């Protein structure tokens, strides 16, 4: 004797329930009119990173690096040739330093290189001042990697000079910038950290 499945039996299957919900969401999404003043056929925005499902949104990645930096600063670190560094206070995100860091990350991608010197010959102090930072810039870390958050900061801690910059006890502010390179580029993501007080 063959047992017959009812519609209730199908609804109990997790995969079927998921597909039904997914279908209803997709159908419902097409019923929502675009917001007033929004052209649904407009060109993509400059925030194309947000569409990349393999990476968290830009702001989230920057926040992860700031948080990981503060966790690293909260513990004593061995900065190799610079010796042990005591735990130091947290740094606070600063908009002007973030603008300077972001501009330099874009510049690094355009140059296809890693350098603390910008394509216009500027250093991190000049870039911070140009972005409107009113304090004193005290250091910059750069990287080109696929790493995020904790792993990126760990890479800087494991490098003597980067560790010293990150653990600078004078630093009170931080700006983190990044630029996602085009697929096939030499480096995947360019990261810049600028510290100041």
Instruction: Give the count of structural domains.
Output: 1
What is the level-2 CATH architecture name? Answer: 3-Layer(aba) Sandwich
The stretches of 5 or more residues where confidence is low (pLDDT under 50) are 5-11, 16-54
Distance between the termini: 80 Å
Largest sheet: 4 strands, mixed
Gross morphology is globular
- Could you give me the name of the CATH homologous superfamily? CAP
Strand content: 15-25%
- What's the number of helices? 7
Specify Rg, calculated over alpha carbons. 23 Å
Mean pLDDT rating:
79
Q: Count the strands?
A: 6
InterPro entries: CAP_dom, CAP_sf
Domain SCP: 67-195
Protein name: CAP domain-containing protein
Description:
This protein is α+β, with helices and mostly antiparallel strands and 197 residues long. The protein has one domain: 3-Layer(aba) Sandwich (Pathogenesis-related Protein p14a). 39% of the residues lie in helices and 15% in strands. The strands form two sheets. It has a four-stranded mixed β-sheet with strand order 3-5-6-4, with helices on both faces. A two-stranded antiparallel ribbon has the order 1-2. A hairpin with a 5-residue loop joins β1 and β2. α3 packs across α6 and α4 packs across α5. About 23% of the residues have low confidence. This is CAP domain-containing protein. It comes from Lujinxingia vulgaris. It holds the Pfam family CAP.
């Amino acid at each position: 004797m063959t047992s017959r499945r009812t519609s209730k039996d199908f609804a109990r299957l997790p995969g079927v329930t998921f597909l039904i919900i997914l279908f209803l969401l997709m159908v419902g999404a097409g019923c929502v009119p675009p917001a007033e003043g929004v052209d649904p056929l407009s060109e993509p925005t400059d925030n194309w990173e947000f569409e990349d499902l393999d990476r968290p949104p830009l702001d989230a990645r920057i926040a992860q690096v700031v948080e990981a930096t503060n966790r690293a600063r909260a513990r004593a670190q061995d900065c190799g040739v610079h010796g042990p560094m005591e735990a130091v206070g947290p740094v606070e995100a600063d908009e002007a330093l973030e603008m300077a860091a972001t501009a330099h990350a874009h510049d690094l991608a355009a140059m296809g290189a890693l350098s603390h010197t910008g394509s216009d010959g500027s250093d991190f102090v000049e870039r911070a001042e140009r972005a409107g930072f009113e304090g004193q810039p005290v250091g910059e870390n750069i990287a080109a990697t696929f790493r995020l958050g904790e792993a990126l900061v760990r890479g800087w801690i494991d490098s003597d000079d980067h560790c010293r910059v990150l653990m600078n006890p004078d630093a009170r502010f931080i700006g983190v910038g990044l630029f996602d390179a085009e697929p096939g580029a030499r480096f995947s993501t360019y990261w810049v950290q600028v510290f100041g007080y």
